[in-house]
Amino acid sequence: MANFYTDNPSLRHHLQHPLMQKIVALRERDYTEAQTYDYAPRDFADAMDNYDKVLEIVGEVCGTTIAANAEAVDHQGASCSDGRAHYADGTVENLDLCRKAGLMGMSMPRRFGGLNFPITPYIMAADIVSRADTGFENLWGLQDCAETLYEFGDDDQRSRYIPRVCQGETMSMDLTEPDAGSDLQSVMLKATQKEDGTWVLNGVKRFITNGDSDIHLVLARSEEGTKDGRGLSMFIYDKRNGGVTVRRIENKMGIKGSPTCELVYKNAPAELCGSRRMGLIKYVMALMNGARLGIAAQSVGVSELAWREALQYAKDRRQFGKAIIEFPAVAEMLSVMKAKLDASRSLLYECARYVDLYKVYEDIARERKLTPEERAEMKEYTRLADALTPIAKGLGSEYCNQNAYDCIQIHGGSGFMKDYACERIYRDARITSIYEGTTQLQVVAAIRHVTTGTYASLLESYAAKGFPGNLAPIADRLAELTKSYTAAVEKVTAVGNQAYLDFMARRLVEMAGYLVMAYLVLLDAKTNEAFCDSAVVYSNLIASEVAKHVEFIDSFNPEQLAAYGI
Amino acid sequence: MSLNIIVLAKQVPDTRNVGKDAMKEDGTINRAALPAIFNPEDLNALEQALRLKETHPGSTITLLTMGLPRAAEIVREAIYRGADSGIVLTDRALGGADTLATSYSLAQAVKKIGDYDIILGGRQAIDGDTAQVGPQIAEKLGIPQVTYAEEILEVANGKITVRRRLENGVETVVAPMPCVVTVNGSAAECRPRNARRVMKFKNAASPSEMAKLPEDLAARVEAAPELQIKEWGAAFVDADPAQIGLPGSPTKVKAIENVVFTAKESRRLDNDDAQIEELVKELIANHTIG
């Protein structure tokens, strides 16, 4: 029986990162909860053992049932009737197993029935679930919304809703509308306060993942007459109260087990979460950041699956008297796939650790005043998480699409048929670079860390760690590439033209992201030989990518923008 | 109505993943080459017990296993999935038991537990494939038995309603309790381990395991009864030495042969009814099929 955690040693490698010591000690408040909860860890080793054992459960449930159900779920898909969305049979079974295994509300505090897992092992579970069934990762991963409810809801709301999530009720974030996709400032769903102070919601939401969930976080216009983001507030809608129906579900290209709903709100009772007018500018931004990390994890899971499917096929398939993996063209593709996988996974967990650290300080700040040192650390980790989240999501999702493409290519003609998993992987992968902010929007979020130098200083700190022996030449090469990158940044910013910067933004962000990932894989190789090949392959790959972008920027005359319609 | 449920389980070598080195030269099982697992149909039985516990709040599930001290592993495994406690019946004197001696020993342990409504177990273990132990225990305890159970449909008014999976269909039977129910592999699969229970019970240990634990951990188990896995010996369950282990086992193994299946011949048939009919007749005649 397959176990998607234990069969993948790179997961344990990332789980055991030295920074975990600090993360776990903060998260567990120096292991004081062990006195109150019989399942709380007593020390660092105990906590790590817990994560390991729970991830083993995740790996088993995923490696057996969820992965086995994926094909049937894809074929059956979700459906809609009588105003409700219905999961495919396999999805129902998957959810039931996750509930019984206690894998819901993993990162929620114990006092609300959660496991109090840090983000890093939780994200690792998402990585594993996505490899088993990418669409199911959405439904399972929406437990993330509880994080937002915890952060911004009041204590009464927390204690009413979070335990339900930990018991296995599902969530959704109802944000987008027919005329408000990437541009959420245009949300029109109307929130009206009645005379008794309670709220009702009226209007339509579209493209809502798991829109028939038990507990919804809803972005709605509470301030009549406003037109921008400052008139929006966040609400909690409880399905038990009724008032929301599913008008239809979308017929999608992939992730077909995850119902994408059009919702009609008719005087649906809801309660305000947090402060009025803060819905978009504060809460949804936080929600989206968490969701983006989730998609980054989903993307890595897809990359893993694509690489494994391709590798297996290349070993089995014989042509010209030998397995096709023995042909250099195929071997190179597989190595590049693995390198992209390793690189995006390293970035994912680097990012997850920073998210862990700033969130745990935020949480401690709810209990007591932080010391000036803690506040400074929180600020720094927030900045790093903010810089790494859009590239982890943006570039990770692009990589999983590339891996899905190559997975089909390695399958040759068979890959174009419906007989192999690779065609499903290809369809499932496609959404990752679109939802929770397209790659283009991730670039918008990341570019200020190019211009303010967050990435440059991060690269410098990686370089300073020192690389011995056979890794030294790679490190030297990365240092040279970093110089090319910073020179390109200077060149573009020196022009002082916003449209020109926007035009070059993706190239600059990609270079930064590639270099960050290359250093991270190199750091992995420093402590774990298993990453040495990927360190070589990835640095070769990105050296040519960086050179390509540098060449484009160097030889580009800003006057040519007109030719691009800019 | 709450129930006292005993689940019988066995730790077995994983014979589903047999490699070349699964058997030693003398024909005995090379246990080192095979991972020890929770007998699959016993997990099906555990799931039925867990469902009863859900529908009958306050019920308790006790796992009972006979084997080496390391069988405490499957007790923990059962506790992770929702069982309340477990007993390992272990004793050198119990070694070498056939199904008669095993069922006697387990029946003695059941009597020692005393209070029970339902005894559940897998239909058979994958190492011996006899399907005899469950029924023999029922006989020794003088209570009814329901075999090949696929689903427990209802427990009410001292009676249990069970759907059985038979060769040619299903049959629903009602039996008075207490009784023994042996569960088929076609029954619902056992639920996964529960994250919180794993964290809570991962240090659960039997006395022989506790002896090997670091002091602080052993002290913790000492202080928490729910973490203690019981270990019972033959004398503790008042077993008659003549009826247990090798002396209590009339089954004598004459010889064990390592059988290697090889494809001997293949035959090509044309796609016509006459040739196919002829082959089917031949296969029936030599008992390959039918």
In brief, what are we looking at here?
The complex is a heterodimer of chains A (566) and B (290). Chain A has 17 helices and eleven strands. By secondary structure, chain A is an alpha+beta fold.
Summary tags:
heterodimer, A: 566 residues, alpha+beta, Butyryl-CoA Dehydrogenase, subunit A, domain 3, Butyryl-CoA Dehydrogenase, subunit A, domain 2, Four Helix Bundle (Hemerythrin (Met), subunit A), seven-stranded mixed β-sheet, two-stranded antiparallel sheet, 17 helices, 11 strands, globular, B: 290 residues, alpha/beta, Rossmann fold, nine-stranded mixed β-sheet, 8 helices, 29% helix
The name CATH uses for the topology of chain B is Rossmann fold
Biggest sheet descriptor of chain A = 7 strands, mixed
**Could you give me the name of the CATH homologous superfamily of the largest domain in chain A?**
Butyryl-CoA Dehydrogenase, subunit A, domain 3
Largest sheet of chain B: 9 strands, mixed
Order of helices and strands of chain B: EEEHEHEHEHEEEEHHHEH
Elements of chain A, N to C (H/E): HHHEEHHHHHEEEEEEEHEEHHHHHHHH
Query: Would you tell me the overall average pLDDT of chain A?
Result: 97
Description of the molecule:
- The complex is a heterodimer of chains A (566) and B (290).
- With 566 residues, chain A is α+β, with helices and mostly antiparallel strands.
- Chain A has 3 domains: 9-166 and 281-433, Up-down Bundle (Butyryl-CoA Dehydrogenase, subunit A, domain 3); 171-277, Butyryl-CoA Dehydrogenase, subunit A, domain 2, CATH 2.40.110.10; 463-564, Up-down Bundle (Four Helix Bundle (Hemerythrin (Met), subunit A)).
- Chain A has 17 helices and 11 strands.
- Chain A has helices at residues 9-15, 20-27, 44-76, 89-100, 119-132, 134-141, 145-152, 155-166, 279-316, 328-367, 372-411, 421-430, 439-451, 454-463, 472-495, 498-527, 532-554, and strands at 79-81, 84-86, 171-174, 190-193, 199-209, 215-221, 232-238, 244-249, 260-273, 318-319, 322-323.
- In chain A, strands 3, 4, 5, 6, 7, 8 and 9 form a 7-stranded mixed beta sheet that branches. Chain A has a two-stranded antiparallel ribbon with strand order 1-2. In chain A, strands 10-11 form a two-stranded antiparallel ribbon.
- Chain A is globular and about 70 Å long.
- Chain B is α/β, with parallel strands linked by helices and 290 residues long.
- Chain B has one domain: HUPs (Rossmann fold).
- In chain B, 29% of the residues lie in helices and 22% in strands.
- Chain B contains 8 helices and 11 strands.
- Chain B has helices at 40-55, 72-81, 99-113, 133-141, 195-201, 207-210, 215-223, 273-285, and strands spanning 4-9, 11-13, 36-38, 60-66, 85-89, 118-122, 145-156, 159-166, 169-176, 179-183, 230-232.
- In chain B, the strands form 2 sheets. Chain B has a 9-stranded mixed beta sheet, with helices on both faces. In chain B, strands 2-3 form a two-stranded antiparallel sheet.
- In chain B, helix 2 links the parallel strand 4 and strand 5 (85-89).
- In chain B, helix 3 crosses helix 4 (133-141).
- Chain B is globular, with a radius of gyration of 22 Å.
- At the A-B interface, helix 3 of A face helix 5 of B.
